[in-house]
Amino acid sequence: MTPSMKPGPATIRDGNAPPAGETLSAEQLIRHMGHDFNNLFSIILGGLSLLREEIPQDSWHPEAREVYGDVVSATREAAEVIAQLTAWTARQAIEPENADLNEVARELQRVLAPSLPAGVRLELQLHDAPVMAWVDRGRLHDAALALVANACDAMDDAGTLCIETAAADGPALTVCDGGRGMDATTLARCRDPYFSGHGGVAHRGLGLSVVDGFVRASDGTLRIASAPGSGTRISLAFPPPRGPR
């Protein structure tokens, strides 16, 4: 199966360049290109993960294993560069709208289904009624994809991944996994720029600092609950909707 990743909002690669005579600001250009690159990196790393699953690595030539690791590491580093650029423009580029987090979760399910590792089962636990929030839908899409990729790494590509929505304490979308979890030291530093709890091992998702930057720029709150052996829950809470729903 060939991994695929549908893009979120319209991007430069979709042919949605500005009309003749109009130009994009630097912030807008970085935002659109960042979204494009995030999709491409997800496809590349998803394909590499599939290759690792389909072909036992003990059958690989040592040089092939080394090259594989170099490609994963280089792609991860490139993703981090893009992540830092998009984080820098986050506040200027935020374009919030009234969005139903239940719909966002369903969109994520459709996008992720073809590209998740075979051992990962995705479940949705959605609030009974629409969960409306004032949020940039495209950036939320990117942030959630990053959290899902990190969750798959934490579960070693096997286990149950859950996307939840809630409204009791304000609109929120949560990604939770049954992975290895984080100890107190890692939990305290996981939002720091360039920090990685993977011990130097390349992984697929963007840093939590980028997700945290987006949530803060949205006047929201990022909540993280984790413990070794108990998995991780990361909730993105946003302001309520504005005007007519």
How are strands sequenced across the largest beta sheet?
2-4-5-7-6
The first-to-last residue Cα distance is: 40 Å
CATH architectural type of the largest domain: 2-Layer Sandwich
Count of helical stretches: 7
The figure for the number of domains is 2
Quickly name the level 1 CATH class of the largest domain: Alpha Beta
Give helix % range.
40-55%
Poorly predicted ranges: 1-21, 199-205
Structure summary, number of beta strands: 7
- Which whole number gives the mean pLDDT? 79
Backbone shape: globular
Largest sheet: 5 strands, mixed
Radius of gyration, in Å, reads 18 Å
Structure description:
The protein is α+β, with helices and mostly antiparallel strands and 245 residues long. 43% of the residues lie in helices and 17% in strands. It contains seven helices and seven strands. The strands form two sheets. Strands 2-4-5-7-6 form a five-stranded mixed β-sheet, with helices on one face. A hairpin with a 5-residue loop joins β4 (158-166) and β5 (172-177). α1 (26-54) runs antiparallel to α2 (62-88) and α2 runs parallel beside α7. The longest helix is centred in the N-terminal third of the chain and has 29 residues, at 26-54.
Layout: helices, strands, pairs:
Layout lengths: L25 H29 L7 H27 L1 H4 L3 E4 H12 L6 E7 L6 E4 L1 H18 L3 E9 L5 E6 L6 H6 L18 H10 L3 E6 L5 E6 L8
Parallel strand pairs: 2-4
Antiparallel strand pairs: 1-3, 4-5, 5-7, 6-7
Helix pairs in contact: 1-2, 2-7, 5-7
Give a quick rundown of the structure.
By secondary structure, the chain is of the alpha+beta class. The protein has seven helices and seven strands; from the N terminus they run H-H-H-E-H-E-E-H-E-E-H-H-E-E. The strands form two sheets. The chain has a five-stranded mixed β-sheet, with helices on one face. A two-stranded antiparallel ribbon has the order 1-3.
